[in-house]
Amino acid sequence: MADIITPYLFELNMEQLREKQLVSYVMPVRAYEAIKSAQSKLAHQNIDLRGLEAVLAWVAPCVDMFEIRRIDISNPGRSLHLWIYAPESPLDEVKVEVLNALSIWLGLTLSVERSEEVLEILKDERSTKSAWHDLSIDLSLVQGAACPVPKDRRLYDLIAVLASRGLEGKVLDDSRDSSRILLPAGPGESLYGGKTLLGYRPHPVESRKTGDVRGYWTEALKVSALSTPEQQRLRVAVSVSIRNYLPIHPASFKRDGSRYLDVFLTPDAFFTRGSERVRALQVSLKQSEVNVLLGESDAQGGRSLPVLRKILSLTGVNEASLATEKGLLGAVIDRKVSIYPRAGAYHGDKNLPGETGIGIPERKTYFKFLEEHLSGIGFSPVSLERKTPPRASHYANISKSENLTESLSRQILKEVVALNSEETLHVALFSTRPSALSETNAALDLLLGKASSIVENERTYACGLKVAIHPMPAGPLISWLDDPKEASAKFAAGLPKAKRVQIERDAIRKATLKRQSELDGHLSAHMANKQGVWLALVEMDEKLRDEPERDPYVLVYQALARRDVLAQVVLFDPEEREKFRLAPSEEDDPHPYKLRSALRDLLRALGVVYVDSESVPANTSLQAWWIVNLNSKRFERQPGARKDGAVLPVVVKFVNGRLMALFPDRMGAQNWKPYARAMLALYSEDYENTSDMRDDQLKAYIGQFFGSLAAQTAKTLSFCDASNIRRYVPQLGNGAMQFGELKMGGVGAAASTAVLRDGGSGTVVRLLTDTDKSPTYLVADNKTGIATGIFAEPNSNRTFWLSRGLPIPLQKSGAIRIANQQSRFAEEDVPANLKARRFPSLSEICVVVIGRDEDARNVAGLTRKAMELHASTDEATILPFPLHEASLLGETLR
Length: 894
What we know:
Strand 25 (533-541), helix 14 (553-561) and strand 26 form a beta-alpha-beta unit. The protein has a twelve-stranded mixed β-sheet, with helices on both faces. Helix content is 29%, strand content 24%. Helix 2 packs antiparallel against helix 3, helix 11 packs across helix 16 and helix 13 crosses helix 14. By secondary structure, the chain is an alpha+beta fold. It is globular and about 80 Å long.
């Protein structure tokens, strides 16, 4: 058992940081509006920046960040802003680079006349002078809160940039003499997630059968800045992952989605003037642009394709060389340019050239590399020590149910009886497949075990639970809606874009009303006399996702909710199912697993959990605070999707063996509901509309809502996620958080309406699960590298780093232990597949308020236990119970 772990976390000695310059460029408003007009954008829309990131990385690598934002506090107008932190070149050279980059981007993405019009504005001497700003960054920190924060938040960006530059151009060695140079991957629209560095060149991976190169891989290092409670210095966290490259299939696109190419340009005075180093940039391509490159379409347009074509023409590479013999978009390795298509997220580990894990030998190499180069610019590594809870806790025995099948059936029975005083759970099955019923029954057997008796489609279990499956015709639940494009196609081809958009929007609205009526009629015909507790499984063709404006997905959930039926959609590919019907292969068929997962999700929606209710002390509540932000989840073209933004506070608690939820209903009333009833209420839009509240009003409203829980007398442990809650409860953000006291409800000079303090009935735990701030780590003197437990810095009393460990079967796996010890480069010893290489992630938590008779280390131990109280343990369930359930409840509001 490792007592010390070393995260890739390095703190900066601020005394070594001298005042740094920040240069910003604000595009003149006339130029910005001219671009908007040329791109046919509406007044409220931003310009399309596709292609700009690649051109900046190519021609103006001095730029660290670009964004569209307000010009300044006094000017509500918006424009393009470029940010250069601590420029290494004279300002005159920076100006030339930026103007050249903008000139190339405009020339490639606009017509000749419109690009010349914009360039004339950009080159105007008066515009140039007013566009550039020399700024300084205040390097001082604000003390007094739980952790220091910069007076100027741009200091975070500066530190991330400086740490990244300390690694740029350095050689990353490995044991196989295959060194890579780390290159910055170009600017981003935000530096919150840090700067990315890529290893050049990527490694080829040959097929064991044919010897042909089937793909490539390289390391991707992400460097991000952060502050940690109870520590006095700012830090950078470094995470290392493997980036894989595979040919792109032209059909592997989501609607309006993009796929990425990583492009490496070797130094050439003709098109990378002054460059002494290979430049890395990324190019995003739409499906239509890939089809053009593969010769399957003559259509022109797109904003990234011209950038790629310009690079190809300048380097003398024929774009036809991107096409593979199988009609895919493949890699090109040339003397002047190398192009690698990134693998999509849907590729499994076993299909990736470099897999995804980072073994112990590489972790040691990477840490030594980081320590060597970051220490030279003022950073020092942070180590974490194991912490052991000192005594038995009030929550010490909380655990997951042991016999999952029997426990699950008992929990279902308990919830069904509580909801409707009956012992039968009804499941409607909407499907067009003849085998759907037998597959659903098989999935039930795996989840609940064998039934003691089966009569037709009703199964009875030993505990008394009955589950009845009701096959029903799918009808309008799974068919496409009318195509809105047909409405606009009736008009002339020259119809203005704004008018066409409005016509299609009206068509979507009419199709939505029509489908709602069809769904209500269909459900009335087949579920008119339903009684008891009902769930529904709906099988849909996954291709419906490709046209969201014709997808009935949201409408189906809403229509069933109006009849008090909780639904779960299962997506499948009819062609794939037919293939498995003709040539069955249970090992490769994913559908049974989809059905099982869908049933598990349905039961979770019902309020059924995997927690041993007897292990939770009586009159003790585990709570979760969550913010549902609909302002960031608008899908205007999807039928049934909510158009109005809103922010809704939600509390989920587990008490006396049941999962309950609280949020203000449409009348503002606050009443606890069973989890299933809360889910149905959200589907039915029975929640308070806050869309007309100002930001300060929202903060006060949400603070008062959570503060109202302070009056509880029962012992309570509440979890919240900083990334989710800190915007609307600032007292849970690093800059305002105070240990021992949590004030809520007050905004500005207004007094707080509730205060939670140490020694009361409540304990509040704040987690930070942001993957951008989670460092890779090294476990010294540990053969498997699997560190499980609670860790903290020596001088921390309330701040901890948790590793919940891997699922038990994986911890016991010999394959994982071997894989974790294997170097990626020891090819003669490495198994054919290293997908089993796994390391638990680290999560930062801090105990903001400690209840009476509790200890911070005990609370940290309970938090780690709560991370394991889920049906499955993976990246998607890193939040502790019941915070994970609160986040899932929030996803109901689509």
